[in-house]
Design brief:
The chain is α+β, with helices and mostly antiparallel strands. The protein is built from three helices and four strands.
């Protein structure tokens, strides 16, 4: 008759054989499960986490830019600053993942007497009645900036030709910011308001 430790070693050998047999199957399933976890859970969560960060940074840059433009000496200077190629929104592009598509700058004037809002996109087109000493004044002068951008996800996944914004392609967004125009004085040389130059 065999001692008890010999019988126990045979049981352990059988258990080890079973464990390695089942363990090998688990290793192959682990790779597929890890791929599904990364592809279907982690990457979309990373994309969902980075897009709001880029959105917040972009919005703060556009807000700072419209405030800077509202302190310009004249409306034409503000327009030239937005449309110049040298300042093509370098700060937005420097963030990474944000492409500037189009910018639009206009002057919105709201008369406090008539409650009418008028929009002007070019200098020297503002009528005298809504200027600071016009018959419809006092007015509120607002510089209106719209910037169309495309915010790219951190990792773009393209399995098919279907475009899913934020997952397989960029999200088109329009930043829209307004700031009060600050220079309501006249040009001492021409006598015209800087607002209309």
């Amino acid at each position: 008759m065999k001692p008890w430790w010999c019988k126990a070693s045979g049981i352990v050998k059988r258990l080890r054989f079973r464990r390695t047999e089942y363990g090998a199957a688990q290793v192959t399933e682990f790779g597929a499960a890890l791929f599904i976890l990364l592809g279907c859970v982690v990457l979309p969560l990373l994309n969902m986490a980075i897009i709001p960060v880029r959105f917040g940074m972009g919005k703060s840059i556009v807000t700072a830019e419209v405030r800077r433009l509202a302190r310009s000496e004249s409306f034409s200077e503000a327009l030239a600053s937005v449309t110049s190629e040298s300042s093509k929104w370098q700060q937005l592009n420097a963030i990474g993942g944000i492409d500037v598509n189009e910018t639009e700058l206009s002057m919105k004037i709201e008369s406090t007497k008539t409650k009418q809002i008028e929009t002007f996109r070019a200098p020297k087109t503002i009528p005298a009645r809504v200027l600071p000493e016009g018959k419809d004044s006092p007015c509120v002068y607002l510089l209106d900036l719209k910037v169309d951008v495309a915010i790219h996800p951190l990792v773009s996944i393209s399995w098919t030709n279907i475009r899913i914004p934020g997952l397989t392609g960029p999200i088109p967004i329009r930043f829209h910011e307004v700031a009060a125009w600050e220079n309501l004085t006249r040009d001492p040389v021409t006598g015209d308001f800087f607002l209309n130059q």
